Amino acid sequence: MTRQVDILAIGAHPDDVELTCGGALIKMNASGYKTGILDLTRGELGSRGNPDLRGEEAARAADLMGVARRENARLPDGKLSNDDGSRKIIVEYIREFRPHTVLLPFMTGRHPDHRLASETGRDACFLAGLRNYPASGDAHKPSKVVYCSSFREDAPQPSFVVDISDEFEAKLEAVACYSSQFEGLIQAGELYPTGQSLPDLIRTQNAHYGSLIRKSYGEPFVTVETVEINDLVKIGVTSL
Question: CATH number for the domain including 22?
Fold first, then answer.
């Protein structure tokens, strides 16, 4: 199994990554990059299904998306904490995956695990690069940390949007792998109900993000750092 990846997406629960950045992972994989997923919990507090079934669904979704490697840190669902023990576990996974780019949940969220996964994940990215930090593996600091801002009502304007028009239907298929979680639902995670089915709600949301870049579907992302542009002629998205 491939150990090192170019892009690592970290989610609090199995299915979080599929919802927020599944299309981007599919696109990056098709572009030749190796992608990985680290689920921090097994989702054992979920009201539907069970952790073993959810693990099987996560494996099927990863295969569909072309993910090179998917792991589960087995931290406690509903009890994520930015403590040294949790950071150490994530640091060791980062040192194994050795990603260039890490995708994290957005910095806020109604589920406390989403917010804490973001906070703890970023801290672990920094600590993983310290040679004397007491964890297994050789030091490795990711070059870029990016936040997934899909479905957030309080998110700032995206720093950028990834065009997933060609990947959108495959993203829906990956989400549909979690039938134990989503079948018949009209809301999930940070997706508030509108009366639409869950697939239609995702379609509406991703169509909105796509419209921001004049595409059919898109996934939004936020970086704390300013995005660099070196060619003023090739900047995408028309202004007028």
Answer: 3.40.50.10320
